[in-house]
Structure formats: structure tokens, C-alpha cells
Amino acid sequence: LVRLLGPLQGLSNVRIDVMTALVSFERVFEVLDLPSLVQERPDAVALPRSASRLTFDHVSFHYPRADEVSLASLETVARPESADSGQVLTDVSFVAEPGQMVALVGPSGAGKSTITHLVARLYDVSEGQVSVDGHDVRAVTLQSLEDAVGYVTQDAHMFHDTIGANLRYARPGASDEQVWAALEAAQVAELVRHLPDGLDTVVGDRGYRLSGGERQRLAIARLLLKAPSIVVLDEATAHLDSESEAAVQRALDAALRGRTSLVIAHRLSTVRNADLILVVEDGRIVQRGTHAELIATGGLYLDLYRTQFNTQPTEDSWTSA
Ligand code: ATP
């Protein structure tokens, strides 16, 4: 714990967004000694590890307002400017079937990240229900929910610690073999093998400087080690060189295979391969369907598609969807 607290001490003023970026490090609220915004019910049951059908049922949500947050330590979590702001999500419903990939697209500030925050119950919904395999997330233990859901965010954080320790935050007690298998699948074993201290190489602010693509692949290795049944992924917008991009893509393919995923999509390949695309605008789902269906419908999706990918739908984008 001391090792965890060291690098985290400077983080006590961070907003929830940053904390969610760290969620894959497990029980970050506990580590920061901040009370979680959600409470475990006394009668909470453990969510089965294999649970993987994710349902949003008429979910509406507003971030906790300052007056709803009585604890001084949480003032930084509830943004002051959000005190009089309204609903962030309105009547959001969708189902991600086991193994499916659901992509979220939409303008900045539409509510995509907020939807992903509700999956791991970082906040409670204001109305409606988020459930996994029919279990309302408010009725299951926080630990079992955390075990079931893995996050990979754009800016994969690494603690100032060894690569081995950074990976084992996801699964304490993992053997070296398991760690190496995860590194292999995440396309980053070769790199670690060539570092002078291998798994014992210290990374992070004052350690070995990882490139963005390397950090992402290590974060994916951490996810593979955790082996959650649901993956929430915020795809990187940052430009990676094409070799790194291809390696990250292969790592992600391994990480998402056989898992339910909810992806904030920035890649063309993701929207094309998604089983379901949800177009979010002003906190509502305004369009839904596959890439081919949405291109055919026109409207916001087509506009976003053109701007984001700077491309016209071609014959190829129709057929490969
Ligand atoms: P982007 O693509 O820019 O990341 P997004 O679609 O993910 O945007 P969200 O980050 O979910 O959108 O934001 C939806 C709305 O909720 C915005 O108006 C945002 O300002 C607000 N919001 C986000 N996080 C918080 C927070 N912690 N407290 C209060 N309001 C928030």
C-alpha cells in the first residue's frame, strides 16, 4: 500500500476524470482514502465473474451537484461549475450482448465518457438502471463489479514502479508466466525482453520513458491479466506512428476477443466492426445501428463520419461494414 500511496499522494486534488483513468489500478477511491460516491448495499451479492450482458435501461443522469456532496474531500470531484448544470444523460437505453462490441460516437461533451463511467458504477444513475446479466449494478458488491469491468483509457497511466508491479496491480499474485503471456498477447513482450532490467525496469515519471504506444500496450497487457468479462475502451485520438498503431490494434483485438466491449470510437476500423453504434448527442442516443445502416440513413452519423475520418463513404465502407 505504501508503494501505491507514494505515487498517488500528489493526486488528491484530481477530478473524477483523472481518477477514472486510474480505475484499472483497482480500488482507487480506497487507495486515495476518498469515500466512494457510491455505497455498497448490505445485501449486495457477488456478480458472477462471467457476467457479460450489459444493459442500460432508460438511464438518466446528472453529475452530483456541489450541494449534494457534503464531504469536503469530494468538493473537487463535483465540479463547481456543474452546480447549476442540468442532466447529462437522458433516457439512454441499449444492450451489449455477450461478446458484442458497442461503439459510442458523438460530438465532444455529448456524454460518451459519462455513459462509460456508469458501467463500473463510479456514480449512480438518477433514473433507470444499469445492469449486468440482469443484476442491477447497485445490487452487487463493488469488488465483484470491479473485477468484471476493465478500463483502457487514452492516457494509460503507469506508476513510478517496475513494469512487473504495474501489471500486477491488476492481478496481485500473477506468476511471471502469466505476466509474460499477457505481455506477448499485448505485443509488448519484445520490448520488455530487451530492457536491461526486464520486468524489473522502473517506468513512470522518473523511470524508463515509454512511448505513447508502448504505454498503451502495457495497459492492455494489464487488462489481459485482469481478464474482465466487460471492457470499456476509450480509443486514443493521439496520433501514433503506423507501426505502433498496428501493434496497438493487434493488442486490442486480443483484449476484446470474446469479451463484451463498450468503446468510445475514434477509429474507422472500430465503427466498421462494431455490432452496434450508438450516436450520442446532448446526452441522448439519437441514432443507432451498424455502420452500413447509419451511412445509409444519413444524418449526424454521416456528418461525424465525414469530419472525423475526413472521408466520403466509399463502396469499401459499405461492403466492409
Ligand atoms: P469528449 O468526447 O469531449 O470526451 P464526451 O461525449 O465523452 O466528450 P462527457 O465527458 O461524458 O462527454 O461529458 C458530458 C457532459 O458532462 C459535459 O457537459 C461535461 O462538461 C459534463 N461532465 C463531465 N464530467 C463531469 C464531472 N465530473 N462533473 C460534472 N460535469 C461533468
From TrEMBL:
Keyword field contains Transmembrane helix: yes
Membrane-protein topology: Multi-pass membrane protein
Superkingdom per UniProt: Bacteria
Residue intervals of the ABC transporter domain: 72-307
GO molecular function: ATP binding
Compartments reported by the entry: Cell membrane
Major location (coarse): membrane
Protein's name in the database: ABC transporter ATP-binding protein/permease
Record organism: Nocardioides mangrovi
Residues of the full protein shown: 310 to 630 of 630
